Amino acid sequence: MSGLPDARTCPGLGEASDLKFPLGAKFREPLTEARFQQLFGDAEQESDLLSEPRWSRLCRQWRRLPGACSGPGAWRLLLARLPPLRWLPHYRWRAWLLGDAVAGVTVGIVHVPQGMAFALLTSVPPVFGLYTSFFPVLIYTLLGTGRHLSTGTFAVLSLMTGSAVERLVPEPLGGNLSEIEREQLDVQRVGAAAALAFGSGALMLGMFALQLGVLSTFLSEPVVKALTSGAALHVLVSQLPSLLGLPLPRQIGCFALFKTLAAVLTALPRSSPAELTISALSLALLVPVKELNVRFRDKLPTPIPGEIVMVLLASVLCFTSSLDTRYNVQIVGLLPGGFPQPRLPNLAELPRILVDSLPIALVAFAVSASLASIYADKYSYTIDSNQELLAHGVSNLISSLFSCFPNSATLATTSLLVDAGGNTQLAGLFSCIVVLSVLLWLGPFFYYLPKAVLACINISSMRQMFFQMQELPQLWRISRMDFAVWMVTWVAVVILSVDLGLAIGVVFSMMTVICRTQRVQCLALGLAEGTELYRPLRESHKLRKVPGLCILSYPAPLYFGTRGQFRRTLEQHLGLGEGGKEAPKTDGPPDADVAGAREVVQLASRCRDAGIHLLLAQCNASVLGTLTQAGLLNRVTPEQLFVSVQDAAAHALERLVRGQEQQEGNPGGAGLYSRSHETTGPKTCTVWV
């Protein structure tokens, strides 16, 4: 490096090499952390790197907060919290408007039957699915950062909400309710579902206030996909009574899937031939249309709206044939026009529903953030995970005032929006216009819609979730650990319940992370011939171990769970527990907690007592700060902290050379290396990477 003094050129590959410049490596003057800050850092921060207390950094950040209340600061805050202010001025009206309009109308058409179908899955009347397909979509358009994200009713959330609603407001034993009693039961269940939406929205807003958008990473991709695949099987089984026309009570809790199957098989002789025929014809139309939309997505100008076609055909057939009166086919009935009066959910119920609201909030945010990230990467833009928390939190909180149940981004409609040519959040406004027209004017046309058709729509919408199992062979080849996470989560969801399966999946996923940190090995580094690069010796036999120098790498976080393994590994490789016997290896954690930092300080003390010269290299600022606060500088000097492995190795080689020169010049002297040679051989100079 030409900007540094005392740059040296070492012998080439064909020339003689000595201990100071092994294997023809070329290097400059070694840089310690302090020297690097003098050359390239700010003068004010030179001492802060190692000694600034954390409380002073927090105070400095708090002193910056009043600037956010100024005019420019308020405008920046407004731009951050209202994304349309950023993308709307740059909207390409000629290029994007038609695509957003077509995609929005297409998604809106699908929202109508799908919203009513998922409302039945939530155990509330169908019209409340339309409300949930309107208010959350409108709010996310104003607050969301996912340009291609479609929000509204989601099967997994509807299943979780329905299970909670059935437990909070169970149907009386016997099931023979009058019309008034049925209306009262529906009112109570709508209130419970709205309270769940309020609770999940409040939890997401609390997470936003604490800037916990990073929590979405704890629901890994295998956990989310296994959860949705297992929940799809629950949806399929839960819709069997509606497909067969069996008035069976909904099973909740653990083993609900098997209880439902047993009840269906027991009551199978009492199934309704009319509703079974309607279900078979509906699936015969919906499944092929779904397959055509997938196979010819590039050739079709817009996906075929199979759901709305099926809804219209079934409604006309039921009306003309009087299926509801002649064969007792269950129909949707009257959809109230307009919107419900806004009212606050019963806050007295909040303590009871918080246990159910937490997994609903986590699943809603994890699925939404995952979908938004996928399409953001595909179309080269970024999303703000904390802003997504705000958008979905406000969406659930405000929509609960209008009797909506929990909502999130949906897999099917998001894929449909992209395939139909959607470009921005403006497509959500066109989707809202379609749903609004149904709520205000077109609701009576769905009076004779059979509920069996809605059950078929629920099942056909699970197609994408079922096909996620096709990724299992590839997941097995890539990572056996992730495959195990997927299978454990899926089995737990299917056998137990969605809530417990999610908890087991997250816990098992965290356990695999801990296991991975426990399996990390301490790596001995060697020098690549003719360079100044150090790589693990086990990677190639061409790498050379520098005589008299031990370089070790510990590529894992050092925390309370790994400190024991760390101590045993270092004792084995440095011989600290064997009377001073030395062996090559060292470690360098990318992160450290209090227990890990104290372990490093103890290591420095033991190395000093054993006559080992310890050097630390390539530690990031966070690790250095933690080590400093733990008292590391009481055991080592700033001259023992280096910016890279190469700098530390060069410094160690110079030290070894000086020790050899002193030993040759004064054979009877009392230098470190001469005493070491007389007792146990030359001491290993350890470098911490």
UniProtKB/TrEMBL annotation:
One BP annotation, GO: transmembrane transport
Transmembrane domains' residue ranges: 93-112, 119-143, 190-214, 358-377, 428-449, 483-511
Annotated ranges, domain STAS: 539-652
Family annotation (InterPro entries): SLC26A/SulP_dom, SLC26A/SulP_fam, STAS_dom, STAS_dom_sf
Entry's Gene Ontology cellular component terms: membrane
Keyword line: Membrane, Transmembrane, Transmembrane helix
Chain positions covered by the region annotation Disordered: 659-685
Membrane topology category: Multi-pass membrane protein
Subcellular locations according to the entry: Membrane
Record PROSITE patterns: STAS
Keyword Transmembrane helix included in the entry's annotation: yes
Name of protein: Solute carrier family 26 member 10 isoform X4
Species the sequence originates in: Mustela putorius furo
UniProt lineage: Eukaryota, Metazoa, Chordata, Craniata, Vertebrata
